[in-house]
Amino acid sequence: MLALSRFVIKNVITRIEALYQGMKTISEGNFGHRIPIRRRDEIGRLAISFNEMTSRLQSSYATLHEEVLQRRQAEENLRILNTELEDRVRARTQDLAAANQQLRMEIEERRLAETRVEAANRAKSDFLANMSHEIRTPMNGILGMTELILLTTTEPKTRTHLGMIKQSGHALLDIINDILDLSKIEAGKTELENQMFRPRDVVASTVDLLGVTARGKGLRLAFRLDDRVPKHTIGDEGRLRQILTNIIGNAVKFTEQGSVEVSVTLAENGSSPSPDTAHLLFSIRDTGIGIPGDKLESIFESFSQVGESAHVKYGGTGLGLTISKQLVEMMGGRIWVESEPGAGSTFFFTVQLGLAHEQTKAPGTVLTALAPSVSPLRILLAEDDKISRIYAIAILEQRGHSVTAVGTGRKDLEVLKDEHFDLVLMDVRMPEMNGEEATRRIRAGEAGDPQVPIVALTAYALKGDRERFLDVGMDDYLSKPINNDELDHLLERVALRRDTADPA
Ligand code: ADP
After folding, report:
1. Helices (H), strands (E): how many in the chain?
2. Tens-digit pLDDT profile for residues 107-156
């Protein structure tokens, strides 16, 4: 009995030992291990339950393991992606840095190019101002001397030849003026004036002027203004006249028979930007040679003329329409042409002008209507060019004025200290002291009457020069070659001013 008990106990201990070993093996991570089942008693059932739990643990572990593996794989993928992304960002950053560098270089290049263009433009303007001066001074001599000889010559053939010299000289001046004008406009240095004027007067006077040539060719030249065209407008009268002179002048030039008709009306779609603006349409119709269809656009480009022989037959520079186009655009309008070769052309252009309600003319323009008789003036002439001096003295003395002439600004000041004059005609470019400096000093009271009228007499004829001279204190401006009418009007104004200030 005791022996049996010992056997049973030993057996139980052995099985519990086996159970313990199995659990230990499993707890060490060996989930495949199973505890052998010898009997289905309590210990056997314990072992069975334990084996079942181990089975579940094994499958959970396998799932967990699988998930861990997947997570690792995902992490690995993520790491690779991150590395790729970083590589790409690095490459992109390098690209951007290169693009930035390229952009910086391009900006720098453009800035340099702009500086060069500005410098070139300045050089061009300076060159034009100088060229204008250099050409105008000898032209002043040629035209002035021709004028003087004409005064004393009666022999008809010589007078005809002198007349031709004069005509050619003026034609040359017109060309120079056109080139200078266009350069100024293209350099953006032209500013439009804003003064009141009557559109009818501008059209009428331009037609009047060109009427002489038209009549000489047997052409009928007429104009018509729509009643709706405002009586008074505000804008640049001189520039509008310039456009009309170019286009009507062309119409007369390129028409051998028939007529030229100018008409002014309100632009059809004349939607003016404001109630204070008038949108006008000008049309100039001729019965002349016409323009081929493929040239209708290009004639508005610089130096463009239709046909090789046009220049020889009709003269001109091919700049008139280019200048007109630029001016029209500056006035907020456009220009175009319709034409049929052999039948004639119609040029159209629109402009926007301000509306004026006053009925009186601007002060100043009245003076031009004064009687030409001018009481003698004492004039101080500062002019270093000998020929220009001889000519100026001759035309001033011929008008009954007394003239004292000097060759530099410094001499001018010296003479003014001792003598009284009614007018100083001041050349601008002179040795020792130029006319601008001399004017500043006179106005500062360094020589005689600081109020004495000073008028620039100069070959600087670009737009804008006049304003420069007025800024230093000059009262007016006469460009060389001297235009007789302009001189007469100027002398009238000076005499009027003197006589009103000192009626005695
Ligand atoms: P220019 O008259 O000094 O040559 P423009 O610029 O005024 O220069 O005109 C350019 C060209 O356009 C002229 O040379 C001429 O060939 C053509 N043209 C201009 N107006 C007319 C017109 N009314 N009839 C025929 N051709 C014209």
Report:
1. 12, 12
2. 999 999 998 988 887 777 777 767 777 787 788 788 888 888 888 888 88
What is the best residue among 221, 283, 287, 299 to mutate for testing ligand 1's pocket, by most ligand atoms within 8 Å of CB?
A: 299
Ligand 1 atom, smallest distance to 318 CA: 8
Give the list of residues 6+ apart from residue 140 with CB closer than 8 angstroms, or none.
385, 387, 388, 391, 459, 480, 481, 482
Secondary structure of residue 70 in the 3-state scheme: helix
Quote the CA–CA distance of 226 and 459 in Å, as a whole number: 41
Q: Are 400 and 373 in contact (CB under 8 A)?
A: no
Beta bridge partners of residue 279, listed in sequence order: 352
Measuring CA to CA, which residue among 332, 336, 333 is closest to residue 300? Answer: 336
Express each pLDDT in 47-94 by its tens digit. Answer: 888 888 888 888 888 888 899 999 999 999 999 999 999 999 999 999
- Opening angle at CA 143, ends 251 and 402, nearest 5: 125
CB atoms closer than 10 angstroms to residue 191: 12
Residue minimizing CA distance to atom 20 of ligand 1: 250
Say how far residue 438 (Cα) sits from the centre of its chain. 34
- Specify the pTM: 0.57
Q: Is 315 left (phi over 0), alpha (psi -120 to 50) or beta?
A: left
Residue from 254, 301, 312, 327 whose mutation best tests the ligand 1 pocket (most atoms within 8 A of CB): 254
Contact indicator for 445, 402 with CB cutoff of 8 Å:
no
